[in-house]
Amino acid sequence: MTEVSVTKEDAVTSGDLVVLKSVNKHFGALHVLQDIDLTIARGEVVVVIGPSGSGKSTLCRTINRLETIDEGAITIDGKPLPQEGKALARLRADVGMVFQSFNLFAHKTVLENVMLGQIKVRKVDKAKAEEKARALLDRVGVGTQADKYPAQLSGGQQQRVAIARALAMDPKVMLFDEPTSALDPEMINEVLEVMQQLARDGMTMIVVTHEMGFARSAANRVVFMADGRIVEEAAPDQFFSNPRSDRAKDFLSKIL
Ligand code: ADP
Ligand code: MG
User: Fold this and answer.
1) pTM for this prediction
2) Coil, strand, or helix at residue 142?
C-alpha cells in the first residue's frame, strides 16, 4: 500500500481527525444516539461493538452525513460537516464507507466501479483514474477480475472491490459497517486481511464488527455501544479481559 506512508505511531500523535461532541439523534420517539462523545485520532483504528439495534450503523451514517443529527457537532479534520452540495460530496469522498452489502454498481465493471468516483468527484482524468484503480485492485488482490461485473465475483472479492473503490477517493478515514457479516465463512479472512493491512499502513478506521479476533489484533480502542450510548471504551486487551460494565460483560458472554 503505497499511498499511506506515515507509520501508525507518527499518525496518532498528529491530532484528532473525527470528533463527535454531544451528538444526539432521534428516529421519531426512538432516541437512537444519546450524548455521543467520540474522538478519533489520525491513524487510529477504533472497533465499535454492541448488541443489534444499539445505534452502531446510525453512528457510522451520521459521520458521512447519510443521516442528519438533531443536536451536537461532528467535525472531520477540524471542519464541520457540510449540509449539502459539492462540499458534502467532497466530505463523503473524504470518508470512505464500506457496507455489509457491498453496494457495487451492478451494471459497471469492477474497474469502472473503482474509476467512477475518481472521475466524477475528484475530477481525475480517465487514464490516471484507470491506473490508480488497477493498482488498488492489485493491492486488495483482485487485479485479475478488473473486467468482470460484480455478480461474477464471490462475496469476498466484491467486498475487496468495495474497499478499493473507497480507497480510490483518498479518504481521510474509512468506515466499515459489518463488512464481513454477509460473507460465507471461508471469505471472511480475505477481507479482514485487507483491513489489517490498511490498519498497519496507518489508515484511520472506524470498524463495526463482530470479529473479535480483528478487534484484538488491529484495534487501538474498542468502543462498546448499547441503547444508543457509548457504555465503555478501552484498549482491546483491557476490554476483553476485564470489561467494566455489566452490559459489556453480558454481551461478551454471549459472543465469545
Ligand atoms: P445497529 O447497527 O447497532 O444494529 P442501527 O443504528 O441500525 O443499530 O439501529 C438503531 C435503532 O434505530 C434500531 O432500533 C433501528 O430499528 C432504528 N433505526 C435505524 N434506522 C432507522 C430509520 N431510518 N428509521 C427509523 N428507525 C431506524
Ligand atoms: Mg448495524
Assistant:
1) 0.92
2) coil
Contact partners, residue 60, CB within 8 Å, separation at least 6? 48, 97, 175, 177, 206, 208
CB atoms within 10 A of CB 116: 16
The angle, 0 to 180 degrees and rounded to 10, between the axes of the packed helices 155-167 and 185-200 is: 20
pLDDT digits (tens, 9 = 90+) for 181-209: 999 999 999 999 999 999 999 999 999 99
Take atom 27 of ligand 1 and give the residue whose Cα is closest.
27
| Nearest of 145, 177, 176, 173 to residue 161 by alpha carbon | 145
Helix, coil or strand: residue 21: strand
Give the bridge partners for 13, in sequence order.
none
CA of 226, nearest ligand number:
1
**Other beta carbons less than 10 A from residue 78's beta carbon:** 9
Q: Looking at this predicted complex, what is its ipTM?
A: 0.98
Ligand 1 pocket check for 228: Cβ under 6 Å:
no
CA 40, 42, 47, 51 dihedral sign is positive
